[in-house]
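Weekly structure sync, notes
Attendees: PL (lead), two postdocs, one rotation student
Agenda item 3: pending single-chain targets
PL asked that the sequence for the first pending target be pasted directly into the notes so everyone works from the same version. It is reproduced below exactly as submitted, 331 residues in total.
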Amino acid sequence: MPEYVMAAENLSRFYPQRSVKIGDAYPPVKAVDGVSFALKAGETLSIIGESGCGKSTLGRLLVQLETQDAGNLTLAGQDAVALHRKDPLAFKRAAQIVFQNPFDAFNPRFTILKSMLRPLKIHGIGRNDGERKELCRQALVSAGLTPPDDFLRRFPHELSGGQLQRISILRSMLLEPRFMVADEPVSMLDVSVRADVMNLLQRLTSQRHMALVFISHDLATTRYIADRIAVMYLGRFVEIGASEEVLNHPLHPYTRALLSACGSVDQESFDPIEIAGEPPVPIGAGPGCYFAPRCFEAGPECGENYPPLMELAPGHFVSCCHCAMKGVETP
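Predicted structure, written out during the meeting:
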């Protein structure tokens, strides 16, 4: 068995554009710019960052809703792009995604039962509709959606956002995936039901021994579900490490600024830090650190070369010029 369920190496996704000209050329939008990580079975990686940093694009690449322009992606030791082209059904069963808006994930003309039965039929799970319906009923009961038949006969508009998001997760889990992306699955839900959805994801990930990428802009929610946290800025990871290590001992100035602005994180540990301006468009950034124009610690050296990820503590990596002499560059 491969050591990692999902592994990305220098993954990049660029989009052509004709609105911003630099010199004589129109440089591409670098939505994802050389991202690398690996996930073991049962492990959860949370990707956080401001809107527009490339989190959702990365999530779509991981499940092959989009194809990378550069880099390698493997699923259970196999080339993900080649597997998707050779056997799309096998890939889609192994790699699932849960989107931010649960109402967009269901056909409004289908009952919940029909929406849950359809992927089971497509993937040949269950010998007949009766057996498949029983699988759906058991899944709803496991998530506290009882009586199950009352939910199965309803249409999406007859359910709350929290109920529908839980069903969306359960529908994906019926395929028994090896890997899942949850793209801000609780950001549109009431605070009162977010914990239920988070607990469901955490429990199913553990029970199914599945690798999970949890995309969020909320640092507070990530500490309850993530084993590791990757902080993303302008298409690149600027810091990655164990969840408690990143939250309690942030190294990158951007991570520290995010934590200082998070109202649900212990404010006594962080002085308020203000980041000037809006995140720049990922066009023609560099050659130095992408965060340097907004960084409160930037110096002349920050504009020369983009800093590589450095391991400053076991498993804790940071990309920052000021930390260059404090660790060893990753291979």
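Discussion points:
- The chain has a mean pLDDT of 89.
- Residues 191-208 form the longest helix (18 residues).
Action: rotation student to compare against the earlier draft before next sync.
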